[in-house]
């Protein structure tokens, strides 16, 4: 499995999990054993899962804006209720189909290895897999219940498990090898991350040179009570600080929706 060997990493030292010997002691057999389960089942490559394996209990919880997506009720409704509401214009002035068109246009004819980071129920991963142009789709999310919805929907859509590698992972400890991914989609996600700066730094790390990031999020004046909303200038600042060159960063406001296109 070329893709797994090349792209999936220990979230702590970023070395490919399929490579031996491992470079860090903390990689532990746990992550390598998880790797064996893919693609037939989802794998958990969060540092929390390793901690639970060793200590028998989970470590600290994330902020509410991340944790609420782990609720089975939210995951169930996310898939079934939100898409028609978005289509009325609330998301990207036209819904997920508009976003899919923008994203695939930006990624081009041969997107290569595409990672959907914070994939949720895989609304975009499934479209990308069905499009059939990607070398591999890797779907990563922190919420095990969102990922379980993704698995159920894949069965309903007739998508074989080999088409989407599903990983429970944290954008702030991304279990992907540096400079390995051709394109990343992070839809409606940054406002849910505990630390958007750290998330984008990780995304920059794993993109190969020339790799593309298409990301969307909501903008101010939405108030940052639970979620963290951004101004266009803040988004640009986060992207430039992560390492993207200013000539290769575009941030567009469509109503209160921010669309990011970057090339590393
Ligand atoms: C609003 S949903 C977006 C889902 C999907 N990308 C879409 O376009 O509809 C935000 C997602 O971010 C995920 N998320 C939040 N914090 C995360 C983190 N630290 N690492 C990875 N995913 C995270 C949540 O679990 C949730 O599925």
Give the CATH superfamily.
Vaccinia Virus protein VP39
Q: Radius of gyration over alpha carbons?
A: 17 Å
Major beta sheet summary: 8 strands, mixed
Find the count of extended strands (DSSP E, 2+ residues). Answer: 8
CATH architectural designation: 3-Layer(aba) Sandwich
The proportion of residues in beta strands is 15-25%
Quaternary organisation of the protein chains: single chain
How is this structure best described in words?
Helix 10 crosses helix 11. The protein starts with a helix and ends with a strand. With 264 residues, it is of the alpha/beta class. The chain has helices at residues 2-7, 28-37, 47-55, 64-67, 72-80, 82-90, 96-107, 123-131, 144-157, 196-206, 232-242; strands at 43-44, 112-117, 134-141, 164-168, 181-186, 207-218, 249-254, 257-263. The longest helix has 14 residues, at 144-157. The chain has one domain: Vaccinia Virus protein VP39 (Rossmann fold, 3-Layer(aba) Sandwich), CATH 3.40.50.150. The radius of gyration is 17 Å and the shape is globular. It is built from 11 helices and 8 strands. An 8-stranded mixed β-sheet has the order 1-4-3-2-5-6-8-7, sandwiched between helices. 43% of the residues are buried. 39% of the residues lie in helices and 20% in strands.
